[in-house]
């Protein structure tokens, strides 16, 4: 594997982290496996594509997609999931239904063609990294992943909301008993997780392009990241994303047609020893 | 956790159940003579997916482990039949056992990894495993034909017309349903229900919980594989959508709509969902949206399903 492929793996890992961090936050605190996360990613990408094409501004596309998907997240959490609160399996299956509806509606609006979110001129071209010329946009994707990690780390470790989220991951009932409105924290977390899916959609939409099954593909990668990293753990998501990203890169070079299988091996090996993932805690 | 879906409800008397079953079977045997060919094939599909949904219910309703990977097990069998029959001309009576074996092996791999987990983790794992199978079917185009899938004349000429194939399916499905009922009510099947209710208690009674769950999963996969092999003959075509998440969740939804933990409910669910699909597809192409909405409404308003609700109502009246 050469440096170029290694960089590709790291870039993909950064995108995966952005998507999977939102997923793992929701999973960790609300105990909801949000299978609509992939659909939110794709919808975010389409929002970003439409806004960026219409306004000519990539930044506006990102902001618009994040806001739009965050709104979707609020509707999903406050409008639907509240009816099945406390029933893990019903919640999961409900999000499957939501994913179907979102995907089908996206197909109606944007059709089955493949789109690429337009990237600003400043991110076009390549930069030299050591001996290879690497696309600037991919460097940007990597930077975005690192930035999201740092911001989330600050949020979780240095703010009041972060403290409450972390406490909620460990024991939601106790947090409630302390007089904190856990419902509002649920809503904020869901909003944040959804916004991250939207962000991932725009960034990924310019990198991997958007098409009707893109949601399922990113979802299976995110699931692998979370299964490896463990429920609700940001460092877990980062390590999981790096593992999955690099393995995927290796897999695509060495066994192009079985790349999916390459992420499966380590996941299986890990599960044999730690069924709850690297940083997972039992509920 | 699963008790949420499979609410413990009183069973109706064996005689009433038998009367219902005999009536249904008689109806299923007579009906095709008066139905147009198209409806006969819809009925065939209902039976095949009924078996598939029942195989999911064995795990979800009795072992208390909801799988989102059964579509992949079902589809593996379909792929194997179509691949060997259409590319290497293998006779069907070799291809079908091979396909069921392949599906059972896939189920065994899933089982080894998934049985250590419960609840939502089990769901997550089976989902991820199922999606890996989907990814392979989509990308390994040399073997699977990629997005185009594999087409082939699998169904033998003897049962080429839809009526005779219907009767073959009916016989197979009746036998499989009987086998599943026997499996569930066998001493082994009862241990699965015991594990669902309290794994810890079963362990302290001396049962090897992991081994029982493993066997339960593999048996469930075996039945799903048989349904998948039947589907190969029904459809003469397979594509990645046969192993996709949609397949797994549709099967699960059938089991839930009918009533998880009722086994026969899965047949009702299959009837409801496939009839609905045909009805909706006649008017609009937005079946996935309707499917999604059915999912959402079922989860919010009727998680016990048709049979579960009937039994709950009857139990309430009985008290």
Main features:
heterodimer; A: 283 residues; mainly alpha; two-stranded antiparallel ribbon; globular; B: 319 residues; 14 helices; 1% strand
Please tell me about this protein's structure.
The complex is a heterodimer of chains A (283) and B (319). Chain A is mainly α. Chain A has helices at 3-30, 37-55, 58-80, 88-110, 136-158, 160-170, 172-177, 182-207, 214-229, 234-254, 259-273; strands at residues 126-129, 132-135. Chain A has a domain at 20-213. Chain A is 75% helix and 3% strand. In chain A, a hairpin with a 2-residue loop joins strand 1 and strand 2. Chain B has 14 helices and 2 strands. Chain B is globular, with a radius of gyration of 19 Å. Classes of the chains: A mainly alpha (283), B mainly alpha (319). The interface between A and B is large, with 47 and 45 residues.
Describe how the helices and strands are arranged.
The complex is a heterodimer of chains A (283) and B (319).
Chain A: H1 3-30, H2 37-55, H3 58-80, H4 88-110, E1 126-129, E2 132-135, H5 136-158, H6 160-170, H7 172-177, H8 182-207, H9 214-229, H10 234-254, H11 259-273
Antiparallel strand pairs in A: 1-2
Chain B: H1 14-30, H2 37-63, H3 70-87, H4 92-114, H5 119-139, H6 141-144, E1 150-151, H7 162-185, H8 187-197, H9 199-204, H10 209-235, E2 237-238, H11 245-258, H12 264-283, H13 287-301, H14 305-318
Antiparallel strand pairs in B: 1-2
What strand line-up does the widest sheet of chain B have? 1-2
Question: Helical region count of chain A?
Answer: 11
Question: Which structural category fits the helices and strands of chain B?
Answer: mainly alpha
Helix content range of chain A: over 70%
How large a portion of the residues of chain A is in β-strands, by DSSP E?
A: under 5%
Radius of gyration of chain B: 19 Å
Describe, in short, the structure shown.
Chain A is mainly α and 283 residues long.
